[in-house]
Design brief:
The protein is α+β, with helices and mostly antiparallel strands. Helices cover 38% and strands 16% of the residues.
Amino acid sequence: MKKVRLTMKYEEQYRIIKELVDHGGNKKRAALILGISVRQLNRRINQYQSKGKAAFVHGNAGRLPVNCLTTEINKQIVTLYRTKYQDCNLTHFVELLDEIEHISVSYTKVYNLLKDNYILSPKPWRQTKRKMAKKKWYRDHPKQATKVSEDVIDHQVALEDAHPRHERCKYFGEEIQMDASSLLWFGDKKAHLHLAIDNATGNLVGAYFDWQETLNAYYHVYEQILVDYGIPLRFKTDNRTVFNYETAKTKAEHKDVLTQFGYACKTLGTDIVTTSVSQAKGMVERANQTVQSRLKPELRLHNITTIEDANKYLREIFVPKFNDKFGQDIRKFESAFDDSPSSEKINYTLAVLSPRTFDSGSAISFKNHYYQATDASNKLICFAKGTKCLVIQALDGQLLVTVDEKVYALTEIPKNAKVSPDLDFEAKKKKPRKKYIPPMSHPWKRDSFIKQQRKAHKYHKFT
């Protein structure tokens, strides 16, 4: 005969009703103890007399809920995470299960299912890792006695060592936090993802891939902000690595982010604050982790292997989807952005500025190539040896040079002539196109740039 097991609630009902049937008693008192009516008590007595103890077993006992997943689906979820989605965080994994695999399941179910199979998320809490390791150890050593030790810990932290939580900014665009993170985004080659996030709304306002953490990438992030929203009030960036990783004498112009980017910010009216404390810009640090855990699997699932396609996917698909999920509606916030400048001003302000000196051949060297100054009609302009100038490489790649408060175009001197006047037939000369040279209204004064550069390097030498 099968042994009947009851829960504590029904075990008490069975004991009281059995006592009532076997020895008699007050039905009203028994109904009051059980919290049921006398009529319901009589029904339970009749059920007991016909079925015995089995009458107290709930009708749904042993029956699976209608929303319970089958064993096959549970195994499929575990297999999918171990193979196809092994680099996804669990929240993203649940979304992809519903979106791609058409398996609708809750986060709690997936978390418990993977935990039962000793699988943790890619970035688990340290405490969770310790608990999992302890659970596995006791599974492998079932006879080992448990030893519990208590340590007396002083939980108070000195104020200068703590990083207490602060409220967010009030205005949209009041503070934009920027940082870059390196990861093996494309195969076995590292790339850097540059992010800019608004402190008030938590929205990504700029994102750009580049192979290194360079000025070019930060300029493209700044360009996205200027075009989409306008001129922000303040940037908060890192004070280490690429911003100050070389001395002033050895730093290359295209990597001199601190002075170049700071000069562009000053020109457009954006303040820039640098800090060496990662917690001071914790929002972008946390956003880097979230974007890494979600973007890398999406790039792999969409077969994106080039940095150009990744930047397109990032700007058109990922950033809007990220802001819809994690950001806030910017229309609910007052804006601190100034009006967007013209595309021409953006192109010529976000430029790489490099001081140079003309040699005896009226030429300058820039990035291992020689150039000469020309006017709008391609007429060669010669300068004396030792003339100081400032080379401007615009955001779109155009090269200009300023000498004595005038702007000229730069024409590259080829290493070898393309046509020989003695051996080649005379070809029909094409009429040279007139080059566009912007007016001297941009911040291209050599003295002011050198002053800003020296000031920045001097400041960061002692901080």
